[in-house]
UniProtKB/TrEMBL annotation:
This is Bacteriocin biosynthesis cyclodehydratase domain-containing protein.
Amino acid sequence: MILRLDPRRALVWRDPRTVQIGVDPVVVVVDDVGDGEARLIAALSTGVTRDGLDVLAELARVSPERVTRLVERLSPAFAPPATEATRPRLAVIGEATGATGRIAGLLASAGFRVVTAARGDDLDARDVAAVVLVSHHVIDPLEHTRWLNRDVLHLPVVFGELAVTVGPLVDPGLTPCLACVEQQRTDADPAWPAIGTQLWRTQAAADTELAATEAALEIVRILAERSPRQVRLDTETGERSERAWGPSPRCGCRGLELSAVTPIAAG
């Protein structure tokens, strides 16, 4: 196993014998650092095995006890062990290739394993922990149905004219689904199904690099908190608003046949 100080944390010297790891926040402060231990800290900055550290310690004339003590004191500042991924695998799905690619790249940089696809029919539900459905104006109802039936967590991201809407997060069988949202939108505006059909596969002006970045941040937050709320980000004013959707009395959400549901649009 490689011991390595977290490269995200600054290594600074408070004085010639006191080293600090991290500034905001401070992770650890180690005092009484001799020349030999300073060499060990330098090795830990780039990464070294424990056996390699012991060899360096012997050359630097640092006793085994002091090496053990140094490792213990620095342990809060070590990078996590390298694994295949630090966060679950996500599928980012959508034919809006610009937005889909940007969001996928940002989520990958946040530590997720990410797979992208225009459609989810070729993806195995066992390979993903959650799905992000990216679109312009309207969500493909077939994608919603697919992941609802597969019992996989899914989150819509819809770019509209002047806003991007993220959510609600659908946990099949536990939270309102996107059909619930659709039915309530239709209750509020009976013309909505016709409007949604006309918006299908049209370009959205809100699909910008900045909006994709803001949407990706919301995705990370919503998945971490398992928040069921929908977030709307106004791309002109920067205003962020939230709303909650309840279950539709006409939607069973479990095993419901959704093939006739019209697309879901940005609010």
